[in-house]
Amino acid sequence: MNAAGGLVEVRVPDLGNFKDVAVIDVLVKPGDSIAIDTPLVTLESDKAAMDVPSTASGVVETVHVTKGGKVNAGDLLATVKADGVQTDSAPAPASAAAPPAPRPAASAAAPLQAAALPPAAAPGGKLTPRSLLGVPTSYRSDLAPIDEPGFSRAHAGPSVRKFARELGVDLARVTGHGFKDRITHDDVKAFVKGALVGAGGGGTDTARPALPAVPTVDFAQFGPTAVEPLSRIQRISGPRLLLSWVNIPHVTQFDLADITDLEQLRASLKDKAQAAGVKLTPLAFIMRACVKALQEFPRFNSSLDADGANLIVRKYLHMGFAADTPNGLVVPVVRDADRKDVYELARHLGALSEKARAGKLPPTDMQGGCFTISSLGGIGGTAFTPIINAPEVAILGVSRATLQPVYRDGGFVPRLMLPLSLSYDHRVIDGAMAARFTTYLAGALAEPRALLEAVL
Length: 456
Hints:
By secondary structure, this protein is an alpha+beta fold. The protein has helices at residues 148-153, 158-167, 185-199, 232-247, 260-275, 282-296, 342-357, 431-446, 448-451; strands spanning 7-11, 21-26, 33-34, 39-44, 49-53, 58-63, 70-71, 76-82, 250-258, 302-304, 311-313, 319-321, 323-325, 328-330, 333-334, 371-375, 394-398, 402-408, 411-425. Strands 9, 12, 15, 16, 17, 18 and 19 form a seven-stranded mixed sheet that branches. The model is unreliable at 86-142 and 199-207 (pLDDT under 50).
């Protein structure tokens, strides 16, 4: 249809069998000039994310959806004041003098030169993304090569991926601040600004060298294989863990805590706790002991600011804990843990764990953590090196307690010893402070009755 001079309604296309699909990003606003196929919104089902392109060219009059809302096929997305471009035809192909090049494979040996590409403009002089005009997008040759596996796993929509490609930004190195921690256009722009600041002023390139890529192997040549897709939680958490491991200098301090008396006390309180509807687990005592240790060593409750020159010391204490679910690990957060006694902590731990296993944990229950506990005590192991949950600066790993001979008063006695593994950011915390922290924590766990004191 020709919509010259009129208003055109752009609606949600056929979504197949999906209903009530989430709007995770709105990419335009009233007054924006758009071309045919310009992405308007990003939708995400439980299977995939997709950008919905415009079927009209002109100026956005009204946007009828909001971020966080739900839509179905046929719902009104936007009203566009059309500029006369046919809305039922595809964008014009590139001229015969400059035929579109085939899209390079992920393993292309050398990036294209972005500077050699002419400015992209639609009829009437309107700027249009290069890819919409058949002009191949390219890497920036002056930046480090893109980590293709990391780029593909990044939690970002198609329009953001296209934008990052055109700027030469490796999404594996970008932290998302959008809905459900998705990477947005603003995150990509902020990354570019940060790179420019880091590389300017001193005349030397301070950008980090790219990590070597993991070789691609055709495993089928060695025998039968099967492909099992990662869960959504694993696809989201993987890049975040990689970011933390690569960017934070991890050191792990190992220690042992005597929890013989703690377990005896917990066993004596079990019936009382059950009568109150509370499952009094060891994790509740460990969390209470961590609260006391964080109050004693407030640097563990801090984060580095963006330029790494200052510490941001929190005056609140929200405690995260790793919860094992059928879809992977998630980290619920107990808010204001310093204001809760052992019984209240146990109640919140149980409620959050149940919601996590049922897949009903809202994003607000996984945000704002100051310190994280990852307990594998119920499964096994003697020690491990947990990865810091950035932007936190430390994480405590807890393994399975075992009876061990401990020398006391001239002889060996059996004591129940709990392995502790404290990973910390060595830019913020030194080894002496980490050792003092675990020593204090072990002492708190060895005096369990003090952990039952009322919280003022």
